[in-house]
Amino acid sequence: MNQEMRAIPQEWHEQIISLLAERIVVTDCSGIILYINEAYCEFLGTTVDQAINRPVQDVIENTRMHIVAKTGKKELAAIHPINGSEMIANRFPLVIDGEIVGALGTVMFRSPEEWRMYKSKIQHLVEELKYYKTKVEKELKSKYHFQDLIGESPNFLATKKLAERISASHSSVLLIGESGTGKELFAHAIHNNSQRASFPFVAINCTSIPEHLLESELFGYDDGAFTGAKKGGKKGQFEIAHNGTLFLDEIGDMPLSMQSKLLRVLQEKEVQRVGGQKSIPIDVRIVAATHRDLEKMVKEGTFRQDLYYRLNVIKIEIPPLRERETDIPLISRTLLKKLGGKFFRKGIELGGEVQQRLIEHAWPGNIRELENVLERAINVLDGKTIEVSHLPLYLRDQEVGHELQSQARVDQTENHAVQVLPLKETLAKVEKEALIQALAVTRGNKRDAAKLLAIGKTSFYEKCKLYDIR
Ligand SMILES: Nc1ncnc2c1ncn2[C@@H]1O[C@H](COP(=O)(O)OP(=O)(O)OP(=O)(O)O)[C@@H](O)[C@H]1O
Ligand SMILES: [Mg+2]
Hints:
Layout: H1 10-20, E1 23-28, E2 33-36, H2 38-44, H3 48-51, H4 56-59, H5 65-71, E3 75-82, E4 85-96, E5 99-108, H6 112-141, H7 154-166, E6 173-176, H8 183-192, E7 201-205, H9 211-219, E8 220-221, E9 234-235, H10 237-240, E10 245-249, H11 256-268, E11 270-271, E12 280-281, E13 285-290, H12 294-300, H13 305-311, E14 314-317, H14 328-342, E15 349-350, H15 352-360, H16 366-380, E16 385-386, H17 393-413, H18 423-441, H19 446-452, H20 457-466
């Protein structure tokens, strides 16, 4: 325990230093070499005896050690050309009692060969990373099949049958459904059930791509199409999806100018890259999806009628969850199994009261909302059964609502005054609750929440501020 600290023997220092940094030099504050190791001397074509006590500039070409010893400013990872090869140099001032007494320098990569070795090792890793990235992307591309679409209610089964039947056709498909009803799942399933299954499934979300990038994203660009364009140009998603399926998600959010360009491609069956002359023939099947009322948009002039007709060859309307409430217990069980696997929590069940609650709820965010509610419940759950107390407030509050109402009735019969709040306050309460509920559905995504509530983003932000929400 109380051992004295043993000093490292003097004769070890040289070896330790050489192991820590292969090439090392130490100068005093006027740049005279006080120490330099053999490895460095060997590289410089000199010997320790010849180098020591000489000005560092005379021994090491292009050195800046004497400068660092003056300025006291360290220089890290500086490129240092020596003997025709580029070395990486680190230079540190040595400060004792607040005074610069000298400088310490190291250089990496003895020879260009060594540098190349490092480079090729990193290169290798970069390539590996690229490979895994594309592999993951591929696996992300089309992973759902019709058997993953859960539901046995007659209207859902009819929808699923229709989608299965039209999978093999080449005609465009328009998927209509509220947020979270499974539009993306249907698109995947249709692709996987078609002869195009072994070709790419490319998904594009028209909302998430800035308008000025959408064109080059869809059609690609040629060399020098604009400043900053990648050399050699870039393939667009249409080209990438060749022989496969292009899923245009949120097509209702596509700007009008792009709608015309898309229409032209669908008619001509060929694309022209931005800044390019050549026409590239394209064979893709279009599956488009939206939660918007496109017919209304056509009437309002915000969606091109001719494009609407082109896309609307096969229309599939996916019913919202509240129109297939008999499916709720089955979907919940499936989701619980899936989530149970994700969180390593097997055998989680729904309590009877909870099941009833879930069936009664209107589910504006549909299956995605249900998934979020169940995931949250699993996170706050200790045992195996989800009870009402594990549900988010807005689902628990239905109970409070019922209780208040019955309480009010009791109060009335007992001739007590019922507390009635000013209408403004009641409305504010309800509005705040609606905002919180929408945010719960969209996992805190304000943009989507505003969409769900069918109000503007700015107005949504203002209201959040007003009610002090997050
Ligand atoms: N029939 C279903 N059976 C099981 N899970 C489903 C079903 N439909 C959708 N889901 C799940 O619900 C979530 C939402 O589905 P999806 O992303 O396809 O909805 P969406 O209609 O594209 O929604 P949005 O309009 O918000 O993009 C996903 O996690 C998906 O796995
Ligand atoms: Mg979607």
